[in-house]
């Protein structure tokens, strides 16, 4: 077998551990704020710093968030769950152990369907459990492997964390990106996650290369094959784009090693996003001993009856399908309009008040397009939804043209912060109708005899040219449809 065919015969097998910060007002075991922007080491107390005698108290909101996620991924939520101490030493772990869940996680099993390159696949979830976040390390004067020194900020210590462990079901870095994007979408719809918070989602990825022939047509692979393959764990991935890039690099690195006849070392590696490489941190032990034992200060948690009282909202996939059925939207438009819960809520509010087709065009194409051009999100203008609704109303009642609404009013609203009525009045954008339009049509015909001749000769572009001349004379305030109709009547 040639070196090229040897490389092609290898396929990646990837599993994830996704760490999601839950959106709660206070930490998981104390009353400290989860405010993301305080001075370092100010949102701390004896509990989250692990001082002697301090006792943890479980945050009810964190448990509710975990139950919501469990319902969304169709996990088994047991009647009773409990916490353990995971013992290891690291500078960002002030107690010398982490309160987490071991043999009784709050969510067991589950799945999440992804779409990648036109194919749909279900990714299995092994478990999802609650734990406390460690502090954060800041490497000064270099990267993790070259820093002069490292600072520790314990503001993050104790923030509620949900660790989601997947089955090794991913067969490409692209599938990983699709999964993380879908997961973030679900978390945002559930209202338990803020993607704008720094470090809100972190990923550890385990990756092995195996013979492609060992993977069946459904993507399945025997456990014995996985056990015999050396794998690397890639840490410090903080986005779905970063996950795809990091894993693509790691696939190439491992393939190059195998091509050169070297064995892939079973190790933990650090993803250095600024350099675009993974860096070796340590060899991976066969099975690290964390000496788990039950957290005696937190009694077992009964969730049997409570979980039935915790509702979850309509999830993005279901809302996408409803939008297509209820509003007659195409698949692409429905996907845009359900990309976030805020976008979907805003569209539905507009669609209930005006024509759904108009609402879909304005939200999916015009508003989201202009926001994307400015590297903004819908959340950046959430406090101005009434103003944008008013803009759609001005178009719906034909007070201004769609062209002026899009190219003048919307852009000035985003760039200058002005209101729609203020812009319309200042720019004189009220729609031109009646005699003024008729006069502009007559003038365009008289001043452009060549275009008139081309029209009668059957050249379709001539009418568009004449429409443009009328729009220019009326400052873009005439209705293009009305202009087109008047021109054809006059020319005939």
From TrEMBL:
Superkingdom: Archaea
Residue span(s) of domain Asn/Gln amidotransferase: 345-491
Reaction(s) catalysed by this chain's protein: L-aspartyl-tRNA(Asn) + L-glutamine + ATP + H2O = L-asparaginyl-tRNA(Asn) + L-glutamate + ADP + phosphate + 2 H(+); L-glutamyl-tRNA(Gln) + L-glutamine + ATP + H2O = L-glutaminyl-tRNA(Gln) + L-glutamate + ADP + phosphate + H(+)
Coiled coil: none
GO biological process: glutaminyl-tRNAGln biosynthesis via transamidation; translation
Keywords: ATP-binding, Ligase, Nucleotide-binding, Protein biosynthesis, Transferase
Keyword Ion transport: no
EC number of this enzyme: 6.3.5.-
Signal is among the record's keywords: no
Molecular function GO terms recorded: asparaginyl-tRNA synthase (glutamine-hydrolyzing) activity; ATP binding; glutaminyl-tRNA synthase (glutamine-hydrolyzing) activity; transferase activity
SUPFAM superfamilies associated with the record: GatB/YqeY motif (SSF89095), Glutamine synthetase/guanido kinase (SSF55931)
PANTHER family linked to this entry: GLUTAMYL-TRNA GLN AMIDOTRANSFERASE SUBUNIT B MITOCHONDRIAL AND PROKARYOTIC PET112-RELATED (PTHR11659), GLUTAMYL-TRNA(GLN) AMIDOTRANSFERASE SUBUNIT B, MITOCHONDRIAL (PTHR11659:SF0)
Function: Allows the formation of correctly charged Asn-tRNA(Asn) or Gln-tRNA(Gln) through the transamidation of misacylated Asp-tRNA(Asn) or Glu-tRNA(Gln) in organisms which lack either or both of asparaginyl-tRNA or glutaminyl-tRNA synthetases. The reaction takes place in the presence of glutamine and ATP through an activated phospho-Asp-tRNA(Asn) or phospho-Glu-tRNA(Gln).
Family statement drawn from the similarity comment of this UniProt entry: Belongs to the GatB/GatE family. GatB subfamily.
Assembly information from the UniProt record: Heterotrimer of A, B and C subunits.
Official protein name in the record: Aspartyl/glutamyl-tRNA(Asn/Gln) amidotransferase subunit B
Phylogenetic placement of the source organism: Archaea, Methanobacteriati, Methanobacteriota, Stenosarchaea group, Halobacteria
């Amino acid at each position: 077998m040639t070196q090229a065919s040897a490389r092609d015969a290898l396929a990646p097998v990837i599993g994830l551990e996704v760490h999601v910060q839950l959106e709660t007002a206070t930490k998981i075991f104390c009353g400290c704020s989860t405010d993301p922007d305080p001075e370092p080491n100010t949102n701390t107390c004896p509990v989250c710093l692990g001082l002697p005698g301090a006792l943890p108290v479980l945050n009810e909101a964190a448990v509710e968030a975990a139950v919501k996620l469990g319902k969304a991924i169709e996990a088994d939520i047991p009647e009773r769950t409990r916490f353990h101490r995971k013992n290891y030493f690291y500078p960002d772990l002030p107690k010398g152990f982490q309160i987490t869940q071991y043999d009784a996680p709050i969510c067991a099993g589950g799945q999440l369907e992804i779409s990648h390159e036109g194919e749909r696949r279900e990714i299995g979830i092994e478990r999802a459990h609650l734990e406390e976040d460690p502090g954060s390390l800041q490497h000064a004067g270099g990267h993790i492997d070259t820093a002069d020194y490292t600072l520790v900020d314990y503001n993050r210590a104790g923030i509620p964390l949900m660790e989601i462990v997947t089955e090794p079901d991913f067969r490409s870095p692209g599938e990983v990106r699709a999964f993380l994007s879908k997961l973030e979408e679900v978390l945002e719809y559930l209202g338990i996650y803020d993607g704008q918070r720094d470090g809100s989602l972190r990923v550890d990825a385990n990756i092995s290369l195996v013979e492609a022939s060992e993977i069946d047509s459904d993507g399945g692979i025997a456990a014995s094959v996985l056990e015999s393959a050396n794998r690397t764990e890639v840490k410090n991935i903080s986005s779905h784009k970063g996950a795809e890039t990091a894993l693509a690099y790691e696939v190439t690195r491992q393939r190059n090693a195998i091509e050169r006849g070297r064995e892939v070392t079973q190790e933990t590696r650090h993803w250095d996003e600024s350099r675009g490489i993974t860096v070796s941190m340590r060899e991976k032990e066969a099975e690290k001993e964390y000496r788990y034992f039950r957290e005696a200060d937190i009694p077992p948690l009964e969730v049997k009856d409570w979980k039935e009282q915790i509702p979850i909202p309509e999830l993005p996939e279901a809302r996408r399908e409803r939008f297509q059925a209820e509003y007659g939207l195409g698949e692409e438009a429905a996907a845009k309009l359900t990309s976030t819960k805020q976008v979907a809520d805003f569209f539905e509010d507009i669609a209930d008040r005006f024509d759904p087709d108009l609402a879909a065009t304005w939200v999916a194409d015009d508003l989201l397009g202009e926001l994307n051009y400015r590297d903004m999100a819908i959340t950046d203008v959430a406090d101005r939804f009434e103003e944008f609704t008013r803009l759609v109303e001005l178009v719906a009642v034909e007070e201004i043209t769609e062209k002026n609404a899009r190219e003048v009013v919307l852009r000035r609203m985003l760039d200058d912060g002005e209101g729609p009525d203020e812009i319309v009045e200042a720019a004189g954008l009220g729609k031109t109708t009646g005699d003024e339009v008729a006069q502009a049509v007559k003038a365009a015909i008289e001043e452009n005899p060549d275009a008139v001749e081309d029209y009668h000769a059957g050249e379709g572009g001539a009418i568009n040219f004449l429409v443009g001349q009328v729009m220019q004379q009326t400052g873009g305030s005439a209705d293009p449809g009305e202009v087109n109709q008047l021109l054809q009547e006059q020319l005939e």
